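Hi! If you just cloned this repository, the fastest way to understand the data is to look at a raw example. We've pasted two of them here, unedited. The first protein comes first, obviously.
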Amino acid sequence: MNMLTKFWNDEAGFVVSSELVLIGTILVLGVVVGLATVRDQVVQELGDLALAISNINQSYSFSGVTGHTSSTAGSVFADQLDFCDTSVDPANAEPACISVQVAAENEGP
């Protein structure tokens, strides 16, 4: 009976556990917000990388070559812009050609 009374009157564990629950909740909320920010920035950087790669000019040309017994006429390729190519990447803009569209769902009964 004496040991049960000691356990009943001991509140040290309750205070520590409630503090740990509060600290754990704050940490979990911080991690969720941080991961959402990391996700957004990774998408932004991948969009910027795609814009940089799309702006690489792949045009080429070479003139005809004539040898003793043969010749070639030469060739030209002009790289055209795609539908979403642009040479401007303004600060704080959405990533080029990345459009995330999620249809709204009815959550009601």
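Ok, and the second one:
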Amino acid sequence: MSLEVDGVTIATNANGYLENISDWSENVAKAIAAKEGIELTDRHWDLINYLRDEYINNNENQPNTRTIVKAMSAKWDDKSVDAKTLYDLFPLDPSKQGGRVSGLPESRRKGGY
């Protein structure tokens, strides 16, 4: 499978994850999100940037939803952030769908919490 962004064909696997993390850009993220019916907001970008930072700078870590809740609570200085808050952003699973939009490899972890 593939994705067409800015006149460039980007290879993806059968589940829509990028084959090569270096193919990611903000425009690629927007294209993946649009394909999934998501309009990216500042909060989406906060989560995307967090997931990318964890993967790239923390030994390819792909945090689960509970860990993302804690990180976004701190980032947004909002103690009311919970899993529902994140599922409102990425309804199919914040860690997996968020990871796909973030250009990360497909997570083999089961569950999201």
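That's it. A detail worth noticing about the second one: The helical segments are 26-35, 42-57, 65-76, 83-89, 96-101.
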